[in-house]
Specification:
- The protein is an alpha+beta fold and 479 residues long.
- The protein has two domains: 11-181 and 396-478, Aminopeptidase (3-Layer(aba) Sandwich); 184-392, Alpha-Beta Plaits, CATH 3.30.70.
- The protein is 29% helix and 27% strand.
- It contains eleven helices and 25 strands.
- It has helices spanning 11-21, 31-44, 115-128, 151-155, 226-240, 270-285, 311-323, 366-382, 403-416, 430-437, 462-475, and strands spanning 47-50, 56-60, 72-77, 99-102, 105-108, 138-143, 165-168, 176-178, 183-192, 196-197, 201-208, 213-214, 244-250, 256-257, 261-267, 296-301, 307-308, 327-331, 339-351, 354-363, 386-393, 421-423, 442-445, 450-451, 459-461.
- A six-stranded mixed beta sheet has the order 1-2-6-3-7-23, with helices on both faces. A five-stranded antiparallel beta sheet has the order 18-19-20-9-21. A four-stranded antiparallel beta sheet has the order 4-5-25-24.
- Helix 5 crosses helix 6 and helix 5 packs across helix 7.
- The radius of gyration is 25 Å and the shape is elongated.
- 46% of the residues are buried.
- The structure holds zinc ion.
Length: 479
Amino acid sequence: MKYVMENREPAAVLRYFEQISAIPRGSYNEAGIADFLVAFAQARGLEWHRDQTNNVLIKAPASAGMETHVPLLLQGHTDMVCEKNRDVEHDFLRDPLSLYVEGSFLRARGTTLGADDGIAVAMMLALLDGEIPRHPAYECLFTTAEEVGLDGAHAFDYSRIAARRLINMDSEELGVVTAGCAGGLRSDLTLEYRPEPFAGECLHVQIKGLMGGHSGENINSGRANANKLMGRLLAALERDMELHLARMEGGSKDNAIPRECEAWLAVPDAGAAAELLTGEAARIAQELGADDRRFELICEDCEPQACMMSAGDTRRAVALLVCAANGVLEMSRDVAGLVEYSRSLGVVRSEEGKLTLVFSSRSSIEARLDASVRELDLLAGLCGCVTRHHSRYPGWSYAACSELREAYLAAYRRVTGDDARVNVIHAGLECGVIGSHLPGLDMISVGPTMHNIHSPDEALDLDSVAVFWRVLGDLIPRL
Ligand SMILES: [Zn+2]
């Protein structure tokens, strides 16, 4: 194999990264990488276990003299987000990634790089190979389907783990130690209605140009939610004229703030409706932040649709869109600047006779998630909807004392001369799930610096990989 990072350090880590980049490993397609990991363990006589979801656990004994130290759990996910530029031919089920180095960054041609979280896989393989000679016993857990709901972490049998401290390597900023994360759940609210034959004039309304972002990490940016804005516009219209919603589609991912939304309406006078909506949109534009300055509303006459909601059902749909609380709901009183509880209406979609709203609620406190469930159930009851709550995952609350965190911070200081920042995030991490199965687990989430993850612009900062490896080299022999 020809390596594109031949002369860079840490050589073992980068070689393993290049090897796994040849193995397609999108979420739910982790059998190939699991085969590779098992073959790695077998070739070295290491204890291994593979489960039905292709999670792989590999254990290595302590180095000589470290046998009495408690084992260390290391963890990262094998799956990656598969995104490519439109003009690139790439089959994520078959083709190896095409890596290249640009300055001090590693990238893949036209596709995601999968450094999130392939760099953790490569690091663990190098550690299992003894590249850091003095170490406690390792338990290296390679999980699957992280990017699509932490499925592997949920499915793993944690009775196989003896360690009570965990280094998760799924953070993306070298100088930051993550020390807590949010839990969450999704709620689908479905309004079922009896379609009526379309009558009146048809108006197609589109909201475009909003900034969007991650519905956890960016929720405190105050960026507008296209689905909520559409609700407000429809509410304004509904007050002034008879309105029938024929169809509505907004957002594509339940974990993203929707940037676009469109609706097909039946109204008595499409011209008058467009005028009213345009005026309302101009008023809304005054309250939007700079991120959303490209907001635009497009109203066009269109062909009549096959069917529509009754005026009463439309009112229920509009009430649901407008009245469910959205955005930052509570800030933490313990950690300055941390969102403690939020909700985002990520997706609205239509099927024949059904309108479904998908909410994502997040909190580091389980009671808040329970409250979110009840609030949405009550509102859904009033609007005649059915709710389905699913994909719930636990959070990781910040621990005031953590020996592992202190040890990492000290190692980081010795290696770099700088202090790393301790951070708690308003998004999910596998640590929440793993910690819920191993009570008292002392955890940190760390990693080298990456930019633009989940996009074809993903880039891994190779200098930060070298520093991160030196920090591990300082830390691990002391554990
Ligand atoms: Zn990740």
